[in-house]
Amino acid sequence: MNETPKPTPPMRAAILPVTPLQQNCSLIWCTKTMKAALVDPGGDLDKLKAGVEKAGVTLEKILITHGHLDHCGQAGMLADELGLPIEGPHQDDLFWIEKLDGDGARYGMEARSFTPTRWLEHGDTVTVGELTLDVIHCPGHTPGHVVFFHEPSRFAIVGDVLFQGSIGRTDFPMGNHQDLIDAITQRLWPLGDDVMFIPGHGPTSTFGQERKTNAFVSDYALS
């Protein structure tokens, strides 16, 4: 008896860690069109271009979760080289992006400020091929941080908002701990316990797992 082959998922993702901070740059693509986006290409551009080539996809844009060096320090350089638009983050992170050149020199990393093709607001959508991802504004780690959510795949890219077992730092300029807790519990948890997410650093997890075990934002920790 022949098994029915599983249908190809509409979206695939690969994690490409970059920079000395091992930031999870994500390559996401539409399996129907093989059009792709890099989310948070903070550095190591040769590695990222090799990853795109290996996946056999066509890069059509760059998406940014927030303005920190390890997430977007080389996004403008890649966009200029390949002629790609940059979408994100929210405009409240403009001050972070404007100081990328100085931050790069301070941390010994090549970085350059840029102007996004499109700033993103809560409730916006972005497209990759025929995929549509929801934009969720989640301030706290930075004021302009956004999350990208593909509802049909039950999948999110959350940047430095949430990690397996932890949450983003809030001791940076314009960081706010309560804003971060509110963003996680009021904007991410309602998406569903089954949502798998790629964080900005470290291993993947699900919202349900973090609601059970995360020492900062589990239901028990906040009760």
UniProtKB/TrEMBL annotation:
InterPro entries, per database record: MBL_Glyoxalase_II (IPR051453), Metallo-B-lactamas (IPR001279), RibonucZ/Hydroxyglut_hydro (IPR036866)
Keyword Mitochondrion: no
Gene Ontology MF terms in the entry: hydrolase activity; metal ion binding
Cofactors named for this entry: Zn(2+)
Keywords per UniProt: Hydrolase, Metal-binding, Zinc
Recorded coiled-coil stretches: none
Metallo-beta-lactamase domain span: 22-201
Superkingdom to which the source organism belongs: Bacteria
Pfam family, one: Lactamase_B
Protein's recorded name: Glyoxylase-like metal-dependent hydrolase (Beta-lactamase superfamily II)
Organism: Altererythrobacter ishigakiensis
